[in-house]
Amino acid sequence: METKLLTQPEIKFIGIEVQTTNQKEMDPSTAKIPGLWGRFFQEKIAEKIPDKKHDGPLFGIYTKYESDHTGPYSLIIGVEVNDLESTPVGMTGLTIPPGQFMVFTAQGPMPNALIDTWIYIWDYFSKETRHKRLYTADYEVHSGNDNVDIYIAVN
Description:
Strand 7 (137-142) and strand 8 form a beta hairpin. The model has no long low-confidence stretch (mean pLDDT 95). Strands 1-6-8-7-3-4-2-5 form an eight-stranded antiparallel sheet. The protein has one domain (3-154): Regulatory factor, effector binding domain (Multidrug-efflux Transporter 1 Regulator Bmrr, Chain A, Alpha-Beta Barrel). It is 22% helix and 38% strand. It is of the alpha+beta class.
């Protein structure tokens, strides 16, 4: 799989959040991520978010890591905004500071291509020595086709 290293500017998001683990996500009876995506669309969350930067892609932001990919983390599904001052009650605002990100692309039918790419990422960083995964905030850019870019914070 081809990767690229990018330096990204600060990005602000507002969305809805759930805390989970990858172990829970492997079992359909305990998985929370599919339900969060369902809620995002059913409740038309994107339409309720103020000060959107643009009518662009949806984001899945992985943050609040307790340890590494085996521990608890939060997922925020949302959109990019200009500021967080008007974060609606019940939603989460998050700023990702500028930094270096390694970008991986999931291509093909979703969600299987996305799951396979995350498995590849976990394996990649278990071996990679040049760049270390930071476990601060990583994000997926969902642009509406069978192509999702995953940005992993690295040093």
